[in-house]
Amino acid sequence: MADSIDRETYSAARVRALESLLIEKGVITSATVDKVIEFFEKDMGPFNGAKIVAKAWVDPEFKQQLLEDTPSAIAVMNFPRGMAGAEGEHMKAVANTDDVHNLIVCTMCSCYPWPVLGLPPYWFKDPTFRARAIREPRKVLQEFGLDIPESTEIRVWDTSAQIRWFVVPERPDGTEDWTEEQLAAIITPESMQGAAKVVVPA
């Protein structure tokens, strides 16, 4: 993990240098950069996915629609324009159960459902993760701190430009009386990637 952190720090430094150069050369402006950042902070990100999952947890009919026709289910929610664009094309949800755990990976590059999960983390784009997640998903999940019982099937979904997958994680015990807002607050991007489970804060 330390190597991944070092590479992420190095990449971030390169991005900042490139951004400064583009602004200096007049290719973009700082206002443009701020607008893009604001877009992903306020409109497109994991907070959208958390709302979708929370609604699926409390509304069985919505969950069924979400799993059968993800775009049409998302379309009925009050989200900003652009949910079906900007890396949100052809999104598809799969649900974790006691018998099946789902893991999302992109073997080709880093296709990702930005509108519901935000920008992909560095480890998701790492070639080592992409290769190992397909070959030995149970071991990779253990390294994330997630021990999946041998009796539980692990299904790995290769997200791409054709289908951008995300996971509806299992609802944790002890949240039966929670509101959608309370539920959404504990749902993490990692849980919607299949790399973690949702836990109730102590």
UniProtKB/TrEMBL annotation:
Reactions catalysed, as given in the entry: an aliphatic primary amide = an aliphatic nitrile + H2O
Pfam families hit by this protein: NHase_alpha
Broadest EC class assigned to this enzyme: lyase
Ranges for domain Nitrile hydratase alpha/Thiocyanate hydrolase gamma: 10-196
Classification via Gene3D superfamilies: Nitrile hydratase alpha /Thiocyanate hydrolase gamma
Keywords: Iron, Lyase, Metal-binding
EC number: 4.2.1.84
GO molecular function: nitrile hydratase activity; transition metal ion binding
Coiled coil: none
Binding locations of Fe(3+): C106, C109, S110, C111
Recorded family membership: Belongs to the nitrile hydratase subunit alpha family.
NCBIfam families, per database record: nitrile_alph (TIGR01323)
Protein name as it appears in the record: nitrile hydratase
Organism: Leptolyngbya boryana NIES-2135
